[in-house]
């Protein structure tokens, strides 16, 4: 399947009435960050960090239950059954790596979330591919044209996925700072590659192998055994299994690039299993992101001993 | 002499028509069996890959013959286009358009259209159960067709020959 442009990827998942409004009101989809639809509430978007209700300068469009139902049909491509596992986590990823968060009535089974029905809110987070956003970071996380084990620490919505995506592309293709090498990507939520039918819709470089929709812990081990990557990249590690797999990958001679939710290094080192890896100085570089002036802002880069290499 | 030749031709023609009727019944049964096979492939693809419907149709379409292949290909394209608020509408329209040449009886067409009302709309477990239920109903219909087939073929053949003789008698 050919790469589709970002605009059509977003427009085709919206109910037709909402599609028309967004099409008319948002000429530049590159600036769009979020579309929020809540039953009985105005249609809202976040553009250049500003919260706007649509249409601008006219009577607000109130989102109806029917529009939400139609949007869900399009998002799931009329196939809600195929997104059962994702729905359990409260979000699903659509073509292009755009993340759709949902809220509604939760169905429980054996004290676990089984599904979500009567969906009353949808939040579409537009994925942005910012080519070159890792340019400033790359010199700090490479040594002798080799990548260091790097952990990116960032609160949600600060651009860590965008940053990792560009890092993968640059490491895979190679440049002045890093020698091009094979990169294995475990893309559990299809956010990095935005794969459609197994083909990445985002540019991840010429030496990149992607395991799409694969659990991170299993995926890392599968990649090491099957694709012999020199670098492994994963987004949002969190569970105990993920972190054990990260450690395993590091001990297999692969360089690792991972991201984790957190405010700063202190918070990351307080996490139960990850903290242990940090104390053992397994990671050679830590990159802390913030959302000050713009998403993806680097607040600090630290080495394995926690010494500052660069600060905003 | 001309009368004899004419009579023989009439009898051959009506016998042929009777035979054609029987063959058509067999062909119809085959079509229904193939449709059931296609439904089985769709179910298997949904269960095994858990892929969304457009992918399921595209993949199944590669493995079946015409006109089912074009039907599934068109379905995949239309569902991917996301222009219709409900999947059932796309499904029904595609049946009327792409499977017209099968000449399905209205009850079988309705049965097939019913499948579109639950496809993709529910969780995996319920979806699988509904598909199984639908396939059981198809099996029942096929069984009904198969049971009546031999006797109806025989009636068709007999009527063909007898009709021919009757026509010859009347004309003579």
Automatic annotation (TrEMBL), chain A:
NCBIfam families: spore_III_AA (TIGR02858). Coiled coil: none annotated. InterPro entries: AAA+_ATPase, P-loop_NTPase, Spore_III_AA, Spore_III_AA_AAA+_ATPase. It comes from Candidatus Mediterraneibacter stercoravium. The keyword Magnesium does not apply. Keywords: ATP-binding, Nucleotide-binding. This is Stage III sporulation protein AA. One of its GO terms (molecular function) is ATP binding. PANTHER family: KINASE-RELATED (PTHR20953), P-LOOP CONTAINING NUCLEOSIDE TRIPHOSPHATE HYDROLASES SUPERFAMILY PROTEIN (PTHR20953:SF3). Residues 146-293 form the AAA+ ATPase domain. The keyword ATP-binding applies. It comes from the Bacteria.
Automatic annotation (TrEMBL), chain B:
The chain crosses the membrane at residues 6-23, 154-171. Keywords: Membrane, Transmembrane, Transmembrane helix. InterPro entries: Spore_III_AB. Pfam families: Spore_III_AB. This is Stage III sporulation protein AB. It comes from Candidatus Mediterraneibacter stercoravium.
